[in-house]
Amino acid sequence: MANVSVYNMEGAEVGKIDLNDKIFGAEINENLVHLAVVQQLADNRQGTQKAKTRSEVSGGGRKPWRQKGTGHARQGSTRAPQWTHGGVVFAPVPRDYSFKLNKKEKRAALQSALSNTVKENKLIVVDELSFDAPKTKAFAKVLENLKVSGKTLVVLDGMEGNVIKSAANLPAVRTEQVGELNTYDVMNAQTLVVTRAAVAKIEEVYA
Question: pLDDT tens across 166-189, in order?
């Protein structure tokens, strides 16, 4: 069972916490992690690209010149693909790129991602995160105290409005509640900052 330090908002160590091996010490399945990341990126694609085929381009109903005797190659329409302003061959059409991943596979992928974070010492547990009012400077100071830099994912156990608003203007920081946690965001972050309450909730929800 992994044992990690717990810090306060000033960056001082205030205790230790044992992590559930089923979630934070699981065997890392790289294939499932890859599938989960690809699935989320595919789900996020709009799939709204569109180009017109020769049947959809306006005009071109009249044959541009007679079939024989002109010295030109035969042509049936000015909207054929080889003409300027003609249609596109095999034109892209709107489509859905999403695909299904089983719940057990998603959960195993997230467990692998969290376990990898612990293995690489990228997990920081804080006793609590709370602010009296939204203040970006105060949140930045907390990250400085925790010696956190680069892409950071902050996981909260609930809707902490002041914390979320305080982090909103920091481009490298993303906040999520436990229910929003996903493999892509965990793998994309250089540091994972989790409150003690969020750790307990993660172990309850994803065990």
Answer: 999 999 999 999 999 999 999 999
Cα distance between residue 138 and residue 142, in whole Å: 6
Q: What is the pTM of this model?
A: 0.81
User: What's the CA gap between 54 and 34, in Å, rounded?
Assistant: 39
Residue 149 has pLDDT above 90, yes or no: no
Mean pLDDT of 39-50: 94
Please report the DSSP string for 72-130 in residue order.
SPP-S-TTSTTSTT-PPTT------------HHHHHHHHHHHHHHHHHTT-EEEES---
Give the CATH number, domain containing residue 112: 3.40.1370.10
Tokens of 123: 């997990």
Indicate the DSSP class of residue 7. E
Reported as a pLDDT band with limits 50, 70 and 90, residue 47 is very high
Do 86 and 171 sit in the same domain of this protein?
no
Q: How far apart are CA 63 and CA 65, in angstroms?
A: 6
Given strand 3-7, what is the order of strands in its sheet? 13-18, 3-7, 123-126, 191-195, 152-156, 173-177
